[in-house]
Write a structure and sequence with these properties.
The protein is of the alpha/beta class and 574 residues long. The chain is built from 22 helices and 16 strands. α3 crosses α4. It is globular, with a radius of gyration of 26 Å. The two termini are 45 Å apart. Bound molecules: phosphoenolpyruvate (PEP) and magnesium ion (MG).
Length: 574
């Protein structure tokens, strides 16, 4: 009998999940070159692996074709892989080499892959250079067949999957068939890493930063993920399973009870109204937003449309995606943030420079203002979608007044162009900025007259104010949402907005944290945008709160000398 092994990580997305471990990793097989006795048999073994890989690819292709929620671009990539696998110049040349050298198939495949990758990587044409990663992907799939292993996630049979990975990149997470994933657990990452955000958006329990978990876990093991406490248990005993099943039932009861608030107003006992909106990454997330009673979308992270592909999305593609989200929200406001690439979200095809400090570098609005044609395409698509519902546009990572003016001028140019072309859009579209750079928070008074609204991005605002990387566990103790410096910045931003007759919201992860929401209500926040799965819980809290009392409390909290003092005082209030 094997023993239960438990891991403690960061509680990233609440809920309990029990399922079968599937390790997600890009296979890096240990290949040892050997000489085989029967080279013909080895060549046949290789060609069989190719055939199996083709079958697998064809199955994936059919699945993609049948699923309208999957971007057509994925279908094109998979088709390209199928063609390369079927190309005699690839398979036959390797088989021929196995026959002539008597080397094992794995070694010949590896050498050929290295050779092709090196060749593609040195090409002048950007598109051709990108083919290197396709070759690696294809070769990885064939290699997995030779080793008798499954490649990637789609090969798994199980329906109740606990996906375990060292790390999941934003691009990996869009590839995944999430309908079978009951829980996530990764070795690295913090609460505001994009895996954590994605898990919360989809309401999937998740633990991140569980250190050596992926080295201990084995495919097929039973595992429990408790996303509320940050615990992961491998090989649980039957008693543990019963305990967590009971916990999952209690959670489900609570959810049912919260669902009664689906269409209730988010108003405190003394009549203070706050809008509770959802953060989304892809248009389909708007469905979860509606199912959880969102009053709008407070942040559509449009950069996800730019990921996992080989070229920029066209105006038409973007327009379709925005319009889909807008029509799902059925007249409720949708704030589309222009793309925030850079930081931890890179785009190979944009050929961005490698940077020493990506979070302080060429990112978000800085790229948009520098690459006007990219920006124009996006704002045209947003404007066109504005004709189909209530759209607002928001610019990320604003640090200066000039950036705001340049972004607005870009939007105006697109409006004039659309007008000339006779294309409909909402001429009254509101423009707002994210306040996530301390300079913007401090100059909120000067920025407010320029915009219709502010939305505070605390995920970045905290990291920049505290000079503590949001992805780095070593300095996570400095990532302090309760720090009086953060609370004071938030207050400055809200007061500046109100002083100029504008509204202020928050779309960082703090906005959905029920321990912090009382402070935000006390500071007079007009809108809170969060993962759809947090909305009803926050609504319940709002409806049980008195804003007058919270205002007094907030005034006292911002006078505290430290994060600890703020938390202690807050606890006494409860
Ligand atoms: C933020 O910084 O708080 C934010 C909402 O933006 P992102 O997490 O996408 O950087
Ligand atoms: Mg941000």
């Amino acid at each position: 009998m094997s023993m239960t092994e438990s891991f403690k990580g960061v509680a990233a997305s609440a809920g309990v999940a029990i399922g079968i471990v599937h390790i997600y990793r890009t296979p890096s097989h240990n290949v040892t070159p050997t000489i085989v006795s029967d080279s013909e048999r080895e060549a046949v073994r290789f060609l069989k692996a190719i055939e199996d890989a083709v079958t697998e690819i064809e199955e994936i292709k059919e699945k993609i074709a049948a699923d309208p929620t999957i971007d057509a671009e994925h279908g094109k990539i998979i088709e390209a892989h199928r063609m390369i696998l079927k190309d005699p110049a690839f398979a036959d040349s390797i088989a021929e080499q196995i026959r002539s050298t008597s080397k094992n198939a794995e070694a010949v495949l590896r050498d050929k892959t290295d050779e092709l990758v090196a060749m593609f990587e040195t090409m002048d044409d950007e598109y051709m250079r990108q083919r290197a990663s396709d070759i690696q992907d294809i070769s990885g799939r064939v290699m997995a067949k030779l080793f008798g292993l499954s490649y990637g996630f789609n090969a798994s049979e199980s329906t109740d999957i606990i996906l375990v990975a060292d790390d999941l990149h934003p691009s990996d997470t869009i590839e995944l068939d999430l309908t079978r994933v009951r829980g996530f657990a990764t070795d690295v990452g913090g609460r505001t890493s994009h895996t954590a955000i994605m898990a919360r958006t989809r309401g999937i329990p998740a633990v991140v930063g569980a250190q050596a978990l992926s080295e201990t876990a084995v495919d097929g093991m039973v595992a429990i993920v408790d996303g509320g406490s940050g615990e992961v248990h491998l090989n649980p005993t039957s008693d543990e399973i019963s305990f967590y099943e009971a916990k999952a039932r209690t959670d489900a009861d609570k959810q049912r009870q919260l669902h009664q608030l689906l269409n209730e107003p988010s108003t405190t006992t003394d009549g203070f109204c706050v809008e509770l909106a959802a953060n989304i990454g892809v248009p389909e997330d708007a469905i979860a937003a509606m199912e959880n009673g969102a009053e709008g979308v407070g942040l559509f992270r449009s950069e996800f449309l730019f990921m996992n592909r080989h070229e920029l999305p066209s105006e038409e593609e973007q327009f379709e995606a925005y319009r889909r989200a807008v029509s799902t929200m059925d007249g409720r406001p949708v704030i589309i943030r222009t793309m925030d690439i850079g930081g931890d979200k890179s785009l190979e095809y944009l050929n961005l420079p490698r940077e020493l400090n990506p979070f302080l570098g060429y990112r978000a609005i800085r790229i948009s203002l520098d690459q006007q044609s990219l920006f124009q395409t996006q704002v045209r698509a947003i404007l066109r979608a504005s004709h189909y519902g209530k759209v607002k546009i928001m610019y990320p990572m604003i640090a200066t007044l000039e950036e705001v003016r340049q972004a607005k001028a870009g939007l105006e140019a697109a409006q004039e162009e659309l007008q000339r072309e006779g294309i409909a859009f909402d001429a009254g579209l509101e423009q707002g900025i994210m306040i996530e750079v301390p300079a913007a928070a401090i100059s909120a008074e000067q920025l407010a007259p320029e915009v219709d609204f502010f939305s505070i991005g605390t995920n970045d605002l905290i990291q920049y104010t505290m000079a503590a990387d949001r992805m780095n566990e070593k300095v996570s103790y400095l990532y302090q949402p309760y720090h009086p410096a953060i609370l004071r910045l938030i207050k400055m931003v809200i007061d500046a907005a109100h002083h100029h007759g504008k509204w202020a919201g928050m779309c960082g992860e703090m906005a959905g944290d029920i321990r912090i929401v009382p402070i935000l209500l006390g500071l007079g926040m007009d809108e809170l945008s969060m993962s759809p799965s947090s909305i009803l819980e926050v609504r319940e809290l709002v409806r049980n709160s008195n804003q007058g009392n919270l205002r007094t409390l907030a005034e006292e909290l911002i006078q505290q000398p430290s994060s600890t003092a703020v938390q202690e005082l807050l606890q006494r209030y409860r």
